[in-house]
Task: inverse folding
């Protein structure tokens, strides 16, 4: 036996048809009220599936996916980690919090190297990252503690380059986070010789935080803003945000125009120079990799950097463990060995993974335990359908029909035992805060799920249909009679439908006290005819 051997299940057998996992990103179970775009959508397919005996609900947030507390939202990265790993691992937010609380981060070699580089005014220390308490990509408290530590260790000059959120937090909450940061900076600057300032900023969906090579122009705009100090001039971040708000009453924080903070002589306060140090304080990898490449790669052709300052650079975490991006990082990511793909490939299971660009990395990299590339290219096929480069509310169907068409083609080829699909619509359109578009996104997802389920039924296969977290299930809140768009993920459970085409496989649900996304990998092993690994969370199903 090897570490990846699976034993045949004594009752579940490998069926003639494929097993297909369909992930409806962001389609959670809401309150069923007027703010719930999932409930308001026409979803005949999901409505019928819910009537069966194989419907259940899963936890997809908080401790169930490795977040620090149950007050923390889930997200697609931790959700797909849990789905593919079959176990719960402490995730970025928890790892960073623990590293700061225990001082392991500050005592670590990378932090100490960066501090030594900037101590006593020798060079400027720059922090770049998302300024919010959304706890999905970053947390403002992590930044504040690092600033206070930098002061205590003698770093006299710091510049912060902020990315406004409006996605994982309220749509227009940037001013509150800026005020919190400015108050800490003011306290630090009261000490003689310390100069800590906000230097630049902009919305997370406009600059810097692109992912999956979808739009390198975002990173270029971020480079111009943070590094070159090029952009619209303001004398404070508060002035910048208030001005942009006043110019467009509908503009959400995630879409704020880039801005540069200047001094009394109209010169940028914090353009990054040779010899400086830069810490990217986002801990989540997907939207941090590209900026890291721009700083680190000698052979770089994504855009003209104009000048590339020779800096000491580190990320909060290692964003890609196989490609080792970045070279230096403050906190090690969760080590996820033994993802279900490793076991299935060892057993010769032929599989495919498909999504459009926005979620392609979730059914590959994150599903495989933060591992780049194929587990076994001779057995696996990964397909990425390029996402549109327009606001998602303008085309809420996104690439769902193309994903569906290609999936059916793959299934009908007879070449695959297992497939996994991600429909991004409920999440990406939900993040826009546009209710009607979210309803349409859910309806398209329902339609496409139905087509794939019908195809799998015809092939005598089995489907598992679920979501990785909520989003479109809670599109707004009401404050003083006014609807406030909600663009973040939710704390709601997610649906899980197991589709046994002809009811002939003897499947019934196990009675689990607290089932979550991590229980899915063992379930898939069973449906494919195997006992799950001993260290996996229990399967959702039993056999008669």
Result:
């Amino acid at each position: 036996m090897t570490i990846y051997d699976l034993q045949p299940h004594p009752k579940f057998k490998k069926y003639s048809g494929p097993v297909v996992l369909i992930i409806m990103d962001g389609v959670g179970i809401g309150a069923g009220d007027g703010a719930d775009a999932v409930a308001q959508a026409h979803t005949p397919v999901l409505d019928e599936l819910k009537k069966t005996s194989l419907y259940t609900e899963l936890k997809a947030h908080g401790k169930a996916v490795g977040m620090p507390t149950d007050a923390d939202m889930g997200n697609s990265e931790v959700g797909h980690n849990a789905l593919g790993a079959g176990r719960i691992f402490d995730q970025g937010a928890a790892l960073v919090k623990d590293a700061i609380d225990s001082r392991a981060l500050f005592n670590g070699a990378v932090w100490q190297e960066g501090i030594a580089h900037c101590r006593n005014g020798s060079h400027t220390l720059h922090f770049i990252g998302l300024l919010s308490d959304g706890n999905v990509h970053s947390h403002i408290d992590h930044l504040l503690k690092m600033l206070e530590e930098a002061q205590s260790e003698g770093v006299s000059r710091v510049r912060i380059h902020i990315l406004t959120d409006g996605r994982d937090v309220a749509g227009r909450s940037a001013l509150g986070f800026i005020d919190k940061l400015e108050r800490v900076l003011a306290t630090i600057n009261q000490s003689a010789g310390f100069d800590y300032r906000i230097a630049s900023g902009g919305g997370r969906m406009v600059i810097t935080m692109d992912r999956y090579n979808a739009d390198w122009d975002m990173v270029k705009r971020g480079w111009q803003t943070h590094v070159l100090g090029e952009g619209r001039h303001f004398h404070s971040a508060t002035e910048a945000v208030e001005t942009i708000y006043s110019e467009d009453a509908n503009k959400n924080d995630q879409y704020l125009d880039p801005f540069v903070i200047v001094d009394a002589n109209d010169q940028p306060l914090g353009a990054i120079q040779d010899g400086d140090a830069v810490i990217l304080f986002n801990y989540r990898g997907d939207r941090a990799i590209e900026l890291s490449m721009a700083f680190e790669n000698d052979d770089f052709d994504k855009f003209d950097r104009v000048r590339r300052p020779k800096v000491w650079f580190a990320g909060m975490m290692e964003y890609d463990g196989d490609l080792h991006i970045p070279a230096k990082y403050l906190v090690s990511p969760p080590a996820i060995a033994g993802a279900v793909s490793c076991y299935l490939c060892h057993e010769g299971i032929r599989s495919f993974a498909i999504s459009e660009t926005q979620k392609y990395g979730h059914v590959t990299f994150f599903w495989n335990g933060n591992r780049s590339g194929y587990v076994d290219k001779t057995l696996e096929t990964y397909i990425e359908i390029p996402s549109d480069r327009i606001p998602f509310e303008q085309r809420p169907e996104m690439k769902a029909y193309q994903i569906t068409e290609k999936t059916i083609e793959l299934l009908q080829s007879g070449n695959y035992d297992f497939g996994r699909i991600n429909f991004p619509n409920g999440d990406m359109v939900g993040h826009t805060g546009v209710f009607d578009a979210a309803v349409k996104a859910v309806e398209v997802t329902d339609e496409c799920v139905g087509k794939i389920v019908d195809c799998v039924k015809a092939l005598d296969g089995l489907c598992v249909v679920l979501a990785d977290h909520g989003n479109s299930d809670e599109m707004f809140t009401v404050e003083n009679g006014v609807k406030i768009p909600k663009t973040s993920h939710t704390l709601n459970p997610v649906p899980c439908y197991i589709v046994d085409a002809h009811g002939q496989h003897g499947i019934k649900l196990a009675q689990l006290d607290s089932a979550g996304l991590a229980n899915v990998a063992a379930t898939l092993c069973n449906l494919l005819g195997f006992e799950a690994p001993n260290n996996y969370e229990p399967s959702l199903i039993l056999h008669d």
Summary: The domain at 93-331 is CATH 3.40.1450.10 (2,3-Bisphosphoglycerate-independent phosphoglycerate mutase, substrate-binding domain). The chain has a mean pLDDT of 95.
